[in-house]
Design a protein that fits this description.
Radius of gyration: 21 Å
Protein name: CASP-like protein
Largest sheet: none
Subunit structure: Homodimer and heterodimers.
Distance between the termini: 33 Å
Organism: Ceratopteris richardii (Triangle waterfern)
Order of helices and strands: HHHHH
Keywords: Cell membrane, Membrane, Transmembrane, Transmembrane helix
Main location: membrane
Structural class: mainly alpha
Shape: elongated
Number of strands: 0
Strand content: under 5%
C-alpha cells in the first residue's frame, strides 16, 4: 500500500534522470550561443595572425597567438560539454561543484588572457606604420581578440551565477 501512495519506483529516480528546468535550460542555451560566438571570433583572429610568418619574430604577437589558441580550444571544449549536457541523453556533470568552480575560474582566466594578449599586440601596432599589411593584420587580430574579451564577459557572469545559484 505504501508503494501506491509514493508512486512506486518513481521515488527512486536519480538526480541525473530528472529534466533540466526551463529557466536553467534557457540559460544554458544562451551560454552555448555565447561560447560559439567566442569560438568563431577567435578562429577568425587566429586565421589573421597565423596567415603571416613574420609574427613569429615579435614576442607580443606570439603571446596574442597563444592566448587566442587557448581561448579557442577552451570555447570549443565547453561548447561540446554544454551540447552534451543539453542533449536528452546528457548527464548532470555540470551540477558538480568542481565543474562550476573550474568553469568560473577558467572563464575569468581566458578572458583576462584575451585582454592582455590584445593589449600587448596593440602596444606594438600603435606606433607602427599602419600602411604595412603585416601590421594591419596584427591590428585586426588584436581587435578581434579584444572583441572576444568583450564577448567573454557575459560568460564570466554566467559562470559565477552558476556558483551562486545552481539549479
Amino acid at each position: 500500500m505504501g508503494d501506491d501512495i509514493l508512486g512506486g519506483s518513481k521515488v527512486m529516480e536519480t538526480q541525473s534522470q530528472q529534466p533540466i528546468p526551463n529557466t536553467a535550460r534557457r540559460s544554458l542555451v544562451n551560454e552555448l550561443i555565447v561560447r560559439i560566438c567566442v569560438s568563431v571570433v577567435t578562429v577568425i583572429s587566429l586565421s589573421l595572425i597565423g596567415s603571416d610568418n613574420g609574427f613569429n619574430n615579435i614576442p607580443a604577437f606570439n603571446y596574442l597567438l597563444a592566448s587566442v589558441i587557448l581561448a579557442f580550444l577552451y570555447s570549443i571544449t565547453q561548447s561540446v560539454i554544454l551540447g552534451y549536457h543539453l542533449a536528452p541523453c546528457g548527464s548532470n556533470f555540470m551540477q558538480m561543484p568542481f565543474y562550476r568552480y573550474f568553469t568560473s575560474t577558467a572563464d575569468l582566466v581566458i578572458s583576462l588572457l584575451l585582454l592582455s594578449g590584445s593589449s600587448a599586440a596593440f602596444a606594438i601596432t600603435t606606433g607602427a606604420n599602419t600602411a604595412n599589411t603585416f601590421f594591419a593584420q596584427a591590428n585586426g587580430s588584436a581587435s578581434l581578440a579584444l572583441f572576444s574579451f568583450f564577448i567573454m564577459l557575459p560568460m564570466v557572469a554566467f559562470s559565477f551565477q552558476r556558483i551562486l545559484s545552481p539549479y
